[in-house]
Amino acid sequence: MARVNHKKVKQLIQERRGKISDREFFTSRLLALHFEDIAAAQTKRYGSRRPVRVHLTWEPGAPQAACTNNLTIHINVGNPIITQFSTREERYQMVCGLFAHELGHCLYTDFLASQTYGQEISACRWYPEPPALPTIKDRVNERALWDYAQAEPENLPLLARVAHEVGNVLEDAYIENRILEAFPGTLGQSLDFLRAWQWNDMPTVTQLKEREAQGQPVFFSLLQLFLSYGKFGELKYGEEPFAEEHIRTVFELLPELDEDLQSRSGKERWKTVNTILIRCWEQVQEYVEAIKRQHQEDKAAGNGGSVFSKLEQNLSNLTGGSARGKGDAAPISGGPGPGSPSPRREKTQALAKQAGEGEASPTRGTALPMEAAGTSYETGKEDSSKQEVTAQEKGRMPLVETDAISQPMGGRVERNNSYTPELSKTVEAEMDRLFTHMAEQEVCQELEENRLSELNEFAKGISYGNAHKGVEVEVNRMAAVEPEMISQYNAMAGPLLAISRQLQKSILQQLKDRQRGGKQTGLLFGRRLDAHALYRDDGKVFYKNALPNDAPQMAVGLLLDESGSMGSGDRATYARASAIILYDFCQALRIPVMVYGHSTRGSKVELYSYGEFDAIDQNDKYRLVDISARGSNRDGAALRYVAERLSRRPEELRLLMLVSDGQPAAPGYYGTAAEEDLRGIQQEYRRKGVLFLAAAIGDDKENIQRIYGDAFLDISDLHQLPVKLAQAVKRFLRV
Description:
Layout: H1 6-17, H2 22-26, H3 29-45, E1 53-57, E2 66-68, E3 72-76, H4 80-83, H5 88-108, H6 111-122, H7 136-149, H8 155-182, H9 186-201, H10 205-213, H11 218-232, H12 245-252, H13 254-262, H14 266-279, H15 281-300, H16 307-315, H17 343-356, H18 425-460, E4 472-476, H19 483-516, E5 518-523, E6 528-529, E7 542-546, E8 554-561, H20 571-588, E9 593-601, E10 604-611, H21 620-623, H22 635-647, E11 653-660, H23 671-687, E12 690-696, H24 701-708, E13 712-714, H25 721-733
Parallel strand pairs: 1-3, 4-10, 8-9, 8-11, 11-12, 12-13
Antiparallel strand pairs: 2-3, 5-7, 6-7, 9-10
């Protein structure tokens, strides 16, 4: 069987990289697992083991880009906000930014509070408590709100949905600010990339007013401004003075909004939702009525859909917003909270205070003071007084987090449709690694499929003898290892690998000594007495001077009985543990090792390839997890296959180790005839240089000893099986 040409493999991987399409990469399980690993690391950081799953789809026509229910993050990687970018790196960073946003919801959003709010407002009750009503207008608005809610059947559900969108706006701002504070690395950088695009795409107050003139409700504009301030700490004023009504409305609510961004309690944000509904009731009512009117017009034009779908469609146009999450879990507690306000947020607060005190507000065409100048999202111009990224910002993109506020000047704001934020070098390196890994997986899977064909061709070319006449031998091998198997291996392998390392320590020194030469002590026989060892009572008191010599070249084959009886008394479990230890032991000592299991199904012998001499994908250790009890056992055919493979190895020592709990027992293959077949195979391959070692772990030890003679190894205690197999390898290495 041809050896793996690793140079050729690398070449194939590079060729495959160039053929991976965007759709193939962005919907791959590899990328989803990458995000799941990130999520697991961050939830663990907060002391939680709650798994977060990631589901990637390609649905260009679907309106949602991403959403979560606190347990699964769904990202539509075919959404136009991702595919609009021309390079894979930019698309990846957008996907990663969306993931960071949704992970923020998983970590910090109180879905239970959201669910409770929906239930309570649908019953015409405030949650978590009735809002404060300091003015007569507030009390009048509250009464008008509940009267309107009960006036028509669809009014209350529509109001509840609008309230939830307000809550979602506040929550989006809160969780993004927490993500940026807690994760300044790849997650924070990718979220900044997404936010930079969102800010550029957000309309100015002037543009919002122009859209209102075309029929857009005022409350939709207010939602956009709440989101703008919550996320970025400022508003895109456009040509409007600070005294403009939309801006003044947001300014008046800044104390509540700022408290929301600092509070870990989701209930506090729902209190603010109630306050906004009351303070902006006229605009809210106008918005709901506009949606109802648009629905009636659509209905008259023959367009289907409910009034609620019409509302959802309208809310989806909110720039920088996200889909409403549905879940019932509490947030993960712990970790750092939101930091101090950003410089831009502080500037906006100062302007709000200035406007509230009735001081002269900057008007259209008026510049801000020089100390407030710098880089602005709107102007894209720089000044020598540009501020560095602050300590609180912890490495965010300077383009996104600066000490400047937006210029409230006319004619200075232009939408740049070709705008692309700066890419992170870390993200580029991460992309390169993921593409290489994906190409490697696909190439290795193809090569493994080719190898399986070769293994079965090899099996067909063997003469199994009259005892197996008419019997088909089939080799089974997994082309790719599932992530679940890797998880299972990692969960069970720790203590087993510790045993392997202990065994390695004891022999590594012996191998080094053999290569170096010199004095070898602790011998039972010899011509030289070691005076320093006379105290020993085990008789190992002799030594000899050895010439430098290479360690003996050795290959090991392990054949495991996977008959149904191996499921009794955890025999299969210990056989699997033995395979894991022996495989790791041999790999560490650079000993070629092969691991096979065998059972029968009818007249067919099923061979299971878990470990091969020449690895392709380096995942054989994970394949060992699949070792289990299956059917009956036709030992002779399996033994001949593995022995033949070993006999063709070039190594000086070739050791075939068998683990079985009983003598052969398959249809037409048992008793004296089966025993004679096994003895004949053993004698034949001993002449070809293959050494045998049969470990008996069941109640049928006498029969196994009768078959294999001096190659018999009695394992009375299953706990001893892994160690004794590894010790046997050590013993042969001393030859």
